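Figure 3 (text version): C-alpha cells given as input.
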C-alpha cells in the first residue's frame, strides 16, 4: 500500500515545523521510506499575525519543496493549518489561508491547550463561518482537544455538519500519552475518522513521517479496507476535491461483548 499525508509541516523555516532545507530533504527521504507518494505541506497560519505577503512566501516555499520532492517521486501540494482564533473571520474575508490544493478542503485547528468546552460556541461559530464560505473544515488532530474522554456526541455533530475528522498517526502510536491514544482509537471504532496524517514537524523524534508505521499497527486491529480508506483513499479524494467515504463503525467481537475488552 502507498500512503498520502495531508497534514505536515514539511515546508522549512516558516513555522515551528521543519527548520532547514537539509531537514526538509531528510523528511522527504523518510516519507519515501514510509511509502508516501504525495504530501500536502500545511504550515501554520495564525489569523491576525500574518498577511497576504506571508501567504505568498508560504506558496513560494512549498513550490521549492515540490521541486526537491520530484527527485523522491513524491507529489507535493499546498495547504495550511488555519488556527481558529478571534481574528478568523477577517482572515477568511482577506483570504489569508491556503485550502488544500485549492480545493474546498481547509485544514483547521484550535488551541489544544484549552479545554474545548471553555469556548465551545466560539469554535462552532468559526467552523460555521468557514462552511458558509463554501469550504469544508477538516478538523486537525480531533483526538487532542479533550483532556479526558472524548466527547463523541460533539464529534458526531461536527460530522453531521459536514466537517471531516483527521487523527494524528502519533496519537495512535501512543506518543502523546494514553488518553490521546484511547481517544484516537475510540474515534476509529465509532467510524468517526476520515483521515489519518503524520503532522510531521521534525526529522527525528516523535512527529516524523510515520504513515507506514501506523498502518502496520492498525492492520492488527482493523481490516485492510479501513486502513486504506484512512491513509490512502480519502487523502487522495481530498487532494482532488472529491467527496470522501466514511469508514464503518467497528463491530464488537463476541470476546469484547462478553469480557468488555
Ligand atoms: Fe499541524
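Below: residues designed for each position.
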Amino acid at each position: 500500500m502507498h500512503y498520502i499525508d495531508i497534514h505536515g509541516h514539511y515546508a522549512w523555516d516558516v513555522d515551528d515545523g521543519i527548520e532547514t532545507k537539509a531537514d526538509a530533504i531528510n523528511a522527504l527521504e523518510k516519507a519515501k521510506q514510509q511509502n508516501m507518494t504525495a504530501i500536502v505541506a500545511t504550515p501554520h497560519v495564525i489569523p491576525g499575525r500574518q498577511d497576504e505577503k506571508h501567504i505568498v512566501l508560504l506558496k513560494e516555499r512549498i513550490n521549492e519543496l515540490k521541486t526537491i520532492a520530484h527527485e523522491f517521486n513524491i507529489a507535493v501540494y499546498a495547504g495550511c493549518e488555519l488556527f481558529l482564533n478571534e481574528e478568523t473571520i477577517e482572515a477568511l474575508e482577506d483570504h489569508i489561508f491556503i485550502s488544500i490544493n485549492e480545493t474546498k478542503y481547509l485544514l483547521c485547528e484550535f488551541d489544544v491547550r484549552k479545554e474545548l468546552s471553555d469556548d465551545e460556541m466560539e469554535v462552532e461559530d468559526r467552523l460555521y463561518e468557514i462552511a458558509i464560505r463554501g469550504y469544508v473544515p477538516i478538523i486537525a488532530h480531533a483526538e487532542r482537544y479533550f483532556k479526558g474522554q472524548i466527547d463523541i456526541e460533539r464529534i458526531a455533530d461536527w460530522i453531521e455538519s459536514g466537517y471531516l475528522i483527521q487523527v494524528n498517526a502519533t496519537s495512535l502510536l501512543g506518543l502523546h500519552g494514553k488518553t490521546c491514544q484511547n481517544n484516537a482509537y475510540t474515534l476509529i471504532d465509532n467510524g468517526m475518522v476520515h483521515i489519518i496524517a503524520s503532522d510531521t514537524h521534525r526529522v527525528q523524534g516523535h512527529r516524523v513521517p510515520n504513515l507506514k508505521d501506523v498502518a502496520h499497527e492498525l492492520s492488527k486491529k482493523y481490516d485492510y479496507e479501513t486502513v486504506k480508506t484512512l491513509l490512502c483513499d480519502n487523502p487522495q479524494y481530498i487532494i482532488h476535491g472529491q467527496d470522501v467515504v466514511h469508514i464503518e463503525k467497528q463491530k464488537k467481537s463476541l470476546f469484547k461483548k462478553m469480557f468488555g475488552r
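Residues 150 and 169 are 17 Å apart (CA to CA).
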